[in-house]
Amino acid sequence: MPTPLPSSRQRVRFAQEGRPMSAEKLNWGVLGCGNFTRRRILPAVAASGNARVVALQRRRLEDAQATAREAGVPRAYATREELLADQDVQAVFVGSHHAGHLADVLAAAAAGKPVLCEKPLGMNADECRRMVAACEAAGVKLFVGHCGRYKHAIETARQQLAEGTLGELRGMRVCYGNKAKTGVWRRDCRVSGGGPLLDLGPHVIDAVRYISGQDVATVMATVDPQRDFRTGQCEDRARAILRLTGGAPVSVECSAIEPLRNGFEVHGSKAHLVGHYVLSNMESPVVRMERLTGDPDPIVSTPLPIEPREIYRLQIEDVSRALLDPRHSPRCATGADGVATLRIIDAIYASSELSKAVALG
After folding, report:
1. Is 126 a residue whose pLDDT tops 50?
2. Is residue 3 domain-resident?
3. Residue 192: is its pLDDT beyond 60?
4. What are the pLDDT digits (tens) for 270-307?
């Protein structure tokens, strides 16, 4: 039998004594096995050193059984309740459609199981707050799959800014466009919550917050067309100017009608970082540092070495380690980060609808 996760009281005692938990691998159950979960998450767990999937769930039992056979997972279920009742499942990955995240996370919390939920955490900030409150009340941890935190390019930008290499932050730009996204549910905001702003936006917003180390104070945005929950219509593109709490402006854009492109610009008083293809997983990222040197060569551009990384494996190992060893401080986004991201996205929609700036108090 697998070693169960220690109780909250045991966690505190282990932390005080500096002792790791005894389980070698964390047993995961997976709720929702769509294309993303099958292509990214199941292989990542299989390649990890401290995690394994012991059960998965899909709405049709025959589909669940087929996926389990392909992935080498011991048990397959057709319902959330069956998977959460499995005593071998120590933690839950939520990979259902966006509209299903709330019910799945609340049910996992009620079952006493910690959760890693794929982004976005919820359809809006209110849903996210309910999930955070439920997990806190149940004494279980809640993580969010903002996988960009494991990308070398994002880590490099955060480090260069924090260490002062770029000087004082003067502004940022982050964009993500991808018209290759498919799936009927993605184009129905009653299921997805929105278009590219709910799909690609969490990557963009979390990159801004993670790199800058700041939150957003105000938002001025344009969303085209406006989403409509009566018809399910999603936006095709969203553009916004964010003002960080430190005062620097940030331009962000998410689009579902343009060829694949993504990147960031981080502008400091001493130097700039410019990155291309730093948010997606299908191209080799390129990051250059542009130093301001004055005449006769005002800008010196230097490429920075950026390593390819297995970000989903790193994410699952990071969260698993945090659940197995109380001494480990994970990089993974928390439920609070999920709330912050959706607050900003909610404000972008509101700003566009109201045609005015929205302050985040």
Report:
1. yes
2. no
3. yes
4. 999 999 999 988 778 999 999 977 666 677 889 999 99
| 90, 211: one domain | no
Q: How many structural domains does the chain have?
A: 2
Q: What is the mean pLDDT of the chain?
A: 92
- Tokens coding 122: 């919820």
Q: Are residues 139 and 177 in the same domain?
A: no
Identify which of 285, 232, 234 has the alpha carbon closest to the alpha carbon of residue 257: 234
Is 329 inside any structural domain?
Answer: yes
Q: Are residues 93 and 162 in the same domain?
A: no
pLDDT at 298: 72
DSSP 67-116: HHHHHT-SEEESSHHHHHH-TT--EEEE-S-GGGHHHHHHHHHHTT--EE
Residues 109 and 157 in one domain: no
Same domain, 44 and 94: yes
Q: Tell me which of 44 and 297 has the higher pLDDT.
A: 44
Strands 75-77, 51-57: pairing kind: parallel
Pair (351, 324) in one structural domain: no
CATH number at residue 176: 3.30.360.10
Tell me the whole-structure pTM to 2 decimals. Answer: 0.92
Asked if residue 63 and residue 89 are part of one domain, the reply reads: yes
What range does the domain containing 251 cover?
A: 148-307+341-359
Tokens at 270, concatenated: 């001493």
| Tokens linked to 274 | 């410019």
Contact 166, 272 (CB under 8 A): yes
Give the pairing type, strands 169-177 and 216-224: unpaired
Task: Please give the structure tokens belonging to residue 191.
Answer: 């299921």
Report which DSSP code applies to 308. -
Q: Which residue has the higher pLDDT, 11 or 177?
A: 177
Q: Kindly give, in sequence order, each residue whose CB lies less than 8 Å from that of residue 354, ignoring residues fewer than 6 positions away.
A: none
Instruction: Give the integer Cα–Cα distance in Å for 316 and 115.
Output: 11
For 50, half-sphere exposure in the C-beta direction (CA atoms, 13 angstrom radius) is 17
Residues paired with 158 in a beta bridge: none
With respect to residue 45, please indicate whether it lies within any of the assigned structural domains. Answer: yes
Helices (H) and strands (E) in the chain, counts: 13, 16
